[in-house]
Specification:
The chain is of the alpha/beta class. It has helices at 12-31, 103-114, 127-139, 154-168, 192-213, 229-233, 239-259, 285-288, 307-314, 316-319, and strands at residues 94-98, 118-123, 144-148, 173-176, 222-226, 265-271, 326-329. It has a single domain, classed as NAD(P)-binding Rossmann-like Domain (Rossmann fold), CATH 3.40.50. It is built from 10 helices and 7 strands. Strands 3-2-1-4-5-6-7 form a 7-stranded parallel beta sheet, sandwiched between helices. Strand 2, helix 3 and strand 3 (144-148) form a beta-alpha-beta unit. It starts with 11 loop residues before the first helix and ends in a 6-residue tail after the last strand.
Length: 335
C-alpha cells in the first residue's frame, strides 16, 4: 500500500515541479549583480496605518528557497483577521482555492470558513503549510480537504475538482490563486523554460481549473481570479509574470461574459505588494527589505488585508450584481 503524501513523503510529480522552480531560481541567483540597496529616502518613512490593528511596515532581509514556505518566514504573514466577524455569508457553500496553503490563499480560506464554507486546498509541495491552513479552517468549525498537485497538469485540475465534489457533494466557489514568479533584470534572462513555467502555471492553470469547475457550478456560483497590479501597470523586472497577470484580467472579463447567462459570476482581485512566501522566494535578502515601499502606504499589505475583498466577491449577498471586474487592492491612490 502506498503511503499518503506528507512533508517526508511528497508525491513525486509535485516534488519534481518544486525542484524545477528551485533550479530556475538558482539560475537567476547566479546572474544577480552585487547586493546594493536602493538607498531611497522612502526607506525611513513609516508605513501608513488605517485600522486599529497596526501592520508591519518593515520586512526582514530574508531569501527563501522556492516555492517558498510560510513556516520558514522570519516575519509570519498575518492571515487571521481577528477584527473580522463572520455572518454566514457563505453558509452551506464549498470553495476550492488553488495556492491555498499559504499567503493570500490561506487568508482567503480562513475567512471563507469563518463565513460558513467548507474548503478544498490545492497546493504544490508545501505540506506543512497546507496542514497548518487546514487546522485553522477546522478551528473555524468547517471541513477542509488537502489536494497536492501541479496546476500545470490539466488532468490533475480535473481530478482536483472531482475530488472536491466527491468530498463535499458540490462546488460553489473557485479561487484561482496559485502562481509562479521570478524576477529578471533583462528580457534576455527570461529563458524558454522560465517563460513556460510562468505562463503554464499562471494562465494555463487558471484556464484548466475553470474549465474543470464550470460543469459543477450552478446559478449563484462564482469564480475569483487573483490578478495583480503588475497586470494593470506592468513591471520592468517581472516581464513574464506581468504578462500573465494581464492575461488573467482579460480572461476574467471574457469568462464573465461567457458564463453570465448561467448565473455564474467571474471577477478578479488585483493585489499590490503583499507579504507572502512568493516574494522573499523571488527577491534577494537585500532587495526584499524595500518591498512595498513604492506604494502610497509605504509598506506591503498583509494577507488579512486582502481576504475580505475575496469574501465580498464570493458572497451573493454582497456582489450579486458584479461580474467581470478587476478589483484593485494596491495600497496606492488611483490604482
Amino acid at each position: 500500500m502506498s503511503k499518503k503524501p506528507s512533508a517526508k513523503n511528497p508525491p513525486r510529480d509535485t516534488e519534481a515541479a518544486a525542484e524545477k522552480q528551485r533550479a530556475l531560481q538558482r539560475e537567476q541567483d547566479r546572474k544577480e549583480p552585487a547586493e546594493s540597496g536602493s538607498g531611497g529616502k522612502e526607506k525611513d518613512k513609516a508605513g501608513v496605518q488605517t485600522s486599529a490593528r497596526q501592520q508591519p511596515d518593515q520586512v526582514p532581509a530574508q531569501h527563501l528557497q522556492k516555492p517558498g514556505q510560510e513556516k520558514d518566514m522570519e516575519l509570519k504573514p498575518r492571515f487571521l483577521a481577528p477584527d473580522y466577524r463572520g455572518s454566514g455569508k457563505l453558509k452551506g457553500m464549498v470553495a476550492l482555492i488553488t495556492g491555498g496553503d499559504s499567503g493570500i490563499g490561506r487568508a482567503v480560506a480562513v475567512l471563507f470558513a469563518r463565513e460558513g464554507a467548507d474548503v478544498a486546498i490545492v497546493y504544490l509541495s508545501s505540506h506543512e503549510d497546507a496542514q497548518e491552513t487546514k487546522s485553522w479552517i477546522e478551528k473555524e468549525g468547517r471541513q477542509c480537504v488537502l489536494i497536492p498537485g501541479d496546476v500545470k497538469d490539466p488532468r490533475f485540475c480535473k481530478d482536483a475538482v472531482e475530488k472536491t465534489v466527491q468530498e463535499f457533494d458540490r462546488l460553489d466557489i473557485l479561487v484561482n490563486n496559485a502562481a509562479f514568479q521570478l524576477h529578471a533584470h533583462s528580457i534576455e534572462d527570461v529563458t524558454d523554460e522560465r517563460l513556460h513555467e510562468t505562463v503554464e502555471t499562471n494562465v494555463y492553470g487558471y484556464f484548466y481549473m475553470a474549465r474543470a469547475a464550470v460543469p459543477h457550478l450552478k446559478k449563484g456560483s462564482c469564480i475569483i481570479n487573483t490578478g495583480s497590479v503588475t497586470g494593470l501597470e506592468g513591471s520592468k523586472q517581472l516581464l513574464d509574470y506581468s504578462a500573465t497577470k494581464g492575461a488573467i484580467h482579460a480572461f476574467t472579463m471574457s469568462l464573465a461574459s461567457s458564463l453570465l447567462e448561467k448565473g455564474i459570476r467571474v471577477n478578479a482581485v488585483a493585489p499590490g505588494p503583499v507579504w507572502t512566501p512568493l516574494n522573499p522566494a523571488d527577491k534577494s535578502a537585500k532587495e526584499i527589505t524595500e518591498f512595498g515601499k513604492q506604494t502610497d502606504f509605504k509598506r506591503p499589505a498583509q494577507p488579512e488585508e486582502l481576504s475580505p475583498a475575496y469574501v465580498f466577491l464570493a458572497a451573493p449577498s454582497c456582489s450579486s450584481y458584479i461580474t467581470g471586474i478587476v478589483l484593485p487592492v494596491t495600497g496606492s491612490v488611483g490604482s
